[in-house]
TrEMBL record:
Taxonomic superkingdom: Bacteria
GO terms under cellular component: cytosol
Protein name: Crp/Fnr family transcriptional regulator
Species this protein is from: Streptomyces piniterrae
This protein's record includes keyword Transmembrane: no
SMART domains: cNMP, HTH_CRP
PANTHER family: CRP FAMILY TRANSCRIPTIONAL REGULATORY PROTEIN (PTHR24567), HTH-TYPE TRANSCRIPTIONAL REGULATOR ARCR (PTHR24567:SF74)
GO molecular function, one term: DNA binding
UniProt cross-references to Gene3D superfamilies, sorted A to Z: Jelly Rolls
Amino acid sequence: MIRAAGRTRTWQQGVVLFLEGDPPDSVALIEEGLVKITADSDNGYTSLLAIRGPGELIGEMACLDGRTRSATVTAMQTVRGTVVTSERFLALLEEHGPLALSVIRSITARLRDSDGLRADQGALPAGVRVARVLLGLALRHGTAPPGQPGSRALSVNQQELAGAAGTSRESVVRTLRRLQDHGLVTTSRGRTLVLDLRTLARWASG
């Protein structure tokens, strides 16, 4: 339904789909590739809020409340999707109850995930939070390198991990160093390779 109402677009890696502070003129349904959703904090750091992939709708919350975009969406690789204007998107929701219900359920699930993360931030040590974020991203959006079916590669940097885990970049550096010492991850500029998901899950359990 959304595909039929919009137009197909392709974004290359690093291209911004939506910019924080911009007016909500459209939504996008991701069909191929991954995007990262980030927001700038008052202290000047950029926080990673989420990674979205095929089948997921982005930009819908700003369209629903009419406020400026609260985050920036950037292509992590070549991304293909369908773009629908805000006016057409809102009309679709009014015309098709099942679609509106699906969007509401999606937003509710994201809010629940956000509430769970905030609860973790208040109760768990920083190292455990970093491990949980890393594990969640690897399981949902990591890619298996050739010849390494049990590994998952992620294109996120240390500051983005810090923002997602609600901790400092220094804590992320210390945690990644410990994980490297135990043979669980390797890191390079803007990229983390998780080598042992099962053992990382034990770390993430606290």
